Amino acid sequence: MLAAVETVAFHAGNELREALVQAVKQAQERAADPQSRQMMEYFLTPGGLIFMMIIGFIFMLIAFALLSGMGGSISAALLRRKSPPS
């Protein structure tokens, strides 16, 4: 969250883009399969970067929803009311 605020406040969008491009290029160098290299080449285009960020946002949305649900379920199971003694 702090990194997002810093990026917006200091107009560091280009630095973020360069870091993403550098990470994709490193992954491309390690890939042995020509098809995976070609796919990573697509991620270096502006449309590919947008696609990669959208997929990342969707993944994070699903991960947060699942983890929140699991935490709520565990909390409800641990903190449920016991029936009063009869």
What's the quaternary structure here? Answer: single chain
**Can you count the beta strands?**
0
Q: Outline the low-pLDDT stretches.
A: none
Please report which band the strand proportion falls in: under 5%, 5-15%, 15-25%, 25-35%, 35-45% or over 45%: under 5%
**C-alpha Rg (nearest Å):** 21 Å
Structural category is: mainly alpha
Order of helices and strands: HHHH
| End-to-end Cα distance | 51 Å
What is the averaged pLDDT score? 84
Give the fraction of residues assigned to helices: over 70%
Task: Note the overall shape.
Answer: elongated
How many individual helices?
4
Main sheet attributes: strand count, strand direction, barrel closure:
none
Task: Tell me about this structure.
The chain has helices at residues 2-9, 13-30, 34-43, 46-79. By secondary structure, it is an all-alpha fold. Helix 2 packs antiparallel against helix 3 (34-43).
